[in-house]
User: Fold these one by one.
Assistant:
Number 1:
Amino acid sequence: MLKMEDWLVLRDSNSQGLNLSEIARKTGHDRKTVRKYLRRKTAPEPQKRPTRPSKLDPYKPYILKKLNEVPYTAARLFREIKEMGFDGGETIVKDFVRKVRPEQGVPAVLRYETKPGVQAQVDWGELGTVEIDGKIKKLYCFNMILGYSRMRYVEFTLSIDTSTLIQCHLNAFQYFGGCTQEILYDNMKQVVIRRALKSSDSEWNAQFEDFFKHYGFIPRLCRPYRPQIKGKIENTVGYVKRDFFLGGEFSSLENLNVQVFEWLKRVNLSVHGTTHEIPLERFKVENLVPLDQVPAYKVVKKETRKVSRDCYVSYLGNKYSVPYKFAGRTVELRISEGMFQVYVDRESICEHETLSGNCRVARKKEHFQGLLSEILKENSACRNTSKPPMKFTGPEVEKRSLEIYEAFSEGGSL
């Protein structure tokens, strides 16, 4: 197939009066080829090369199916098809996902960057519901990201109360080995009760205020209706959903947090899409405020439970015994650092270490001592105070002397 330029040269030579042989010598084409193309009235159309098969072809239907379910990340899909046997690179997967994923316009924003060790951002994400202790509960995701390095910390919880928020901060500080000078929040009630025009003049949640003053970091509040200021953490929340949570299988809340901890190891070692650097490498210059400068902060979380008839309370899918005399009573759990105490009327009646996993039972023998003898006493008392058995009464029978029956046997009459 000749190109259009070659065909135009043939036509031009022919218009100059050159014969086939002269045109063939001039262009280097065979006389038959020259004759064939001089007879054409239209320019030759370029022929498309046959598309070579791609390593990704067998996995494209799977990728399309997954993208129709939820907006998974290309990195997530690459990991999945790699486990299925794909031996190509991640770039070809990203290019394909970029072509088939629907494009969505977004408003332009001005990115806000911070220096090392200055700021972290925090937010909650809600990820549907989960059944625990026979009850349907909401599942939440705590997210903290360091502004400079983009190092992430993620933890799943069943509550977003202030105690849980503080404990998640402590876990994040422990994970990073320190805290930043300030932390940016939206206007969540666990942090601020009334927001003032000047952030420092706001009315803080008393429990959270005690916490941030203890560690000395400054809480910053996102300006209303300006979520782009918290763009780093907003992106993290969505990324956790798409790249980790959606489509995952988890046996318990603890298992969910174990799996996300492994996910964090990989993500914090992967090149970040904005900085084009590995977060763990940039983290080396974060220069966080160390934790050992202040005493450890103790968080006590309170929850209420009703003691079952068999003398147990439930907590996070496990059962814990309490003294039998409190069966049926409403008690308060005060939870702190892997332990919890059980209170009745402000008096501690027992304590337990929090069990890992679910469907486990923590039973203390002393909680049931005396229960059997008390049951036997109650049974004995029931027997002693029970009513005598009922007697059936029949028709009354007339009583007569034997002499009457003897007379009757000798032929007499009654």
Number 2:
Amino acid sequence: MSECVIAGTLSGKKVRLGRSAVEELYEQGCFGRPVKRGLELTLVEAAYLLDRELIEVRYGGDDLDFRTFFELCSGLESGFEFRYVVYKDLRERGYYVQPGITDFRVYPRGGRPGKTPAEFYVRVISERLPLSLSDILEPVRVAHQMRKRLMLAIVDEESDITFYEAGMKELRGAMRDTPPGGVATLLEDRVVLWDPIFSERLHQEGFYGKPVGGRLQLSLVESAYLLERGLIEVVDRSGSPLMRDEFVERARSIEKNFDMKFRVYRDLRDRNLVVKTGFKFGSHFRVYKNVKGLDRVPHSEYLVHSVPEDYVFHLPGISRSVRLAHSVRKEMVFAYEDGGVKYLEIRRIKP
């Protein structure tokens, strides 16, 4: 071995180096973890240092070149190559990176382990792998408990990395109370409020529905919400009144995901937000914090898509949703149920 680099030995899934490595690698560059007889490196740390010719690695009596070591590590540790790509990228951006509760913890520029808290926990994911909602929420909760931010590092098939931040979102609006309406009729897949005065009031003051020829057409979730709160009455084509439960049963037969969408719609409206369809943006809803008048309708702040508890994300889909939301100056939020409706925001970031 060369005398200008530090020698280490691959043992299990760690590379162990002598005491001199503590000063040269840990104290100067925050690599590895000091142990009783020296320094212990993870496989990605060792590969990074080996590639830079700062260490040499021996295994089974032989010195390993970078290719041999990398291929060996890929067999020892699932996802090794993805983590190496992300580790190398963050290190070369000037960040101190250490193993963490997720894949890594990353310190802010100007900070370092032992002196400043980590800023991010990093979860590394291949673009090819599906990602369940629970697989995102668990590291989000851990990061929140530890007062960190969660970074999702998505590695594509060309080893390019896209970074996202995922976190819980608290949505609140500033809309005033909704005025009462009148009698409306359930037609094929929507509800029509006939009285022009009530129609104008509901639309002007609550931003409900779509005026069509002086009459207000309401969506199923809007109608269920207004009916539940006694703000409209709904009848069928024969004029027979529909109670809330009967209306919901009919809505379920028309719209497959009605219950899930309605629970989210109701929660958002109860948070004093304005909720309109997000169909044009590929989401269930577009959401406004406040609409002060129809002559001053602002851009909606959020796109909200409702997902079930067992939902599985496909990462190209997340990429499309987040990119679209950003392009139209909105935040992408996913709504799910966990003892009530909760909100997960995913946004692209540039470290």
Number 3:
Amino acid sequence: MRVGVDSSKFPDAPGKGAVWLLEQAAALGLDGVFFRSVLELSQALDPAELRDAVQAAQALGLRVQAGVGKVNPFANPESPAVRALGDGDYLLGMRRMITAAADAGVRELWTATANYQFRFSGLYACDRFRTDVSWPRQLAAIERFLGKVAPIARDVGAHLDLETHEEITTFELVRIVEAVGADVLGITFDTANVLVRCEDPVRAMRRAAPYVRATHIRDVALAFTDEGIGRFLLPVGQGVIDWPALLAPLAGRDVMLSIEGIISSRAEMSLHIDDERWQRAHPDLTAAEALEVVRLTRAYEARAAAGSAPDLHQLRAPVTPGEPLEFIRESARRLRELVASLPPSTEREARI
């Protein structure tokens, strides 16, 4: 497994260009960059610019992964850049992004299913809880849209790797991948987001592992709040995740562990576990996983009370200068230790 970094949370990256970020990643001893959008490699999808960026990565010994537009017709209007690429046709914009990336040699392509509105608080910050269109209807539309995108990806040998984003569960993602086809779809496993849907990260990985082709890696702090349970981001090894157990299903596989860090905040998101609307919206949630998340929250709060972990006040405080880069450095250091320590037997287990 390689250790890379996600472009969207790399400090000072906006406006610096793809080659600058690749050079920064190489200087940190990382193995690749996960660009959230292929447009970060070339805003106009210019073949020469895309090729130059990929060749620069290769010269530095780095892997490149990139993203394309989201795949929820009810959320797509919030991605005007993709529609503009298709001269008003969102599907054509997606086709052009997928084809351009594949032509440049980038065939593992991130995508996601909806949005989280940080400018709002409460249940409706998450698209899963929209009242104008139900989540089951959104899921059905996502699957239909991916059915239209699948032949495009199949023609160029690409995979669209759906993220375990804040709004969707691994149960739902696995069903979508299996319905549309694992030859064109995969999963980008975000280790922190699964907890927003009250999934135990280890059980979630075991469910998703057969289809995981990319990752977003970060640890998590959990704390009881007025809204339920708050989820916050921490460097790998400093939160609640059992990393050896989580990584075991990926051992021996050529998957890049892409660190997604922090910029101005630790990205608090709420699990509204006491809200009946929230409870009804999780038909796949089992008591075992919900209780495990509560156990992890209590365990973290005990550490915070003992002074061995940041408490709720510290987690909500602004990120300090230098912290975003240190988040990446510390996560990379710990990930390399974890990967080196995985027992050989886990590779066989991952294939069972």
Number 4:
Amino acid sequence: MKHIAFLALVFFLPNSGVRAQSDVFFSRHFKEVEIPFEYHNDLIIVTVTFNRIFPLKFIFDTGAEHSILAQRQITDLLHVSYDREFKLLGSDLQTELTAYLVRSVHLKVGDWIVGNRPILVLDDDYFRFEELTGREIHGILGSDIFRHFVVKINYSRRIITLTKANEFEPPRDYRELAIKIHRGKPYLDTYVEIFGDTATNVRLLMDSGASTSLLLYTDTSPELKLPPNTIKGQLGMGLGGFLEGYLGRVNTLGVGELEMKDVITNFHEVNHGADTTLLFDRNGILGNKVMSRFYIIFDYPRERLFLKPNKYFKEKFEFDKSGLVLLATGVRLNQIRVHDVIEGSPADEAGVKPGDVIVRANSLPSSFMTVEYMHNLLSKRQGKRIRLVLLRNGEKLKVSFRLRKLI
């Protein structure tokens, strides 16, 4: 399965910033708190109690300036008043979306409490979280509520630790790097080698709301050219729709003194006429598939980053070998539907079509399948045989193919 990257990006139009004081505190007298999270589809998901009533699932998103509730029916059900309307730009920097400001929201995440909090509520669920992940996700927690802390993300233990800035002591066994914090979002200046050993300096947004490894905007530098072996298609889903581009690999990605090899990379061209000033001169995005290979600490107040490789650091970057782009549909999100098929891929050659519903995969019935399971299955070793039972126009048909490296 071509795993659709999710990019929880939203850009605020000039002079539309949300400004408000919040009561942010720990429920007990701790210098830090630990927040457990789930990690699905390369996204960090935390449980948030919304207005002391609803337990909701939010993405913990270092790449988002503000927190957003994606499902308006929740605030409608609570008869919450909408203060004013906002216009936002989607991930493509062109699609204009509508959101509403809600004031004095109460959020609780473990022992971390955020009261008197303004939050944006989308007029419609532009994110389509459920289709992409097969799980209920209700919004994103942006940096507006955690950027005053030092934030440690332990992907191995599935724990986020928030430490009060004046209580933080830099760890001795981590590498320290300078970062830039702009509008609450962390940027790392580093380099990539697309061809051979020719290094290109890049500025990357470190985005835990992106389920990709690396994304590069090819039109932000003449040196960011496509590698020889790429496939064209839909790179991922962002706020406002699917992003088109190319998928390939860069030879080397530098992270401080460390280097990562053969990194799967999305290559995207910013739409002509888009307001690129909103990008803060960045050349791309560093997502969870890279960041999850480190113990990582963001010292927001002092603009520092601390890194230490974890046990996943040296693992190869694997990618789908089928050519399928799948979404979860149905009332219980238990139906796996083919959204797209890469031309010339094994699935395409076997006759799989967009709109097909997968009834069975290698003897496993659909009732036991998830989008995440299918992604793992279709990223297995080259040559592995895949047998699918499909439902097309009310009729069942069988297809089979062998996985093959696409990039």
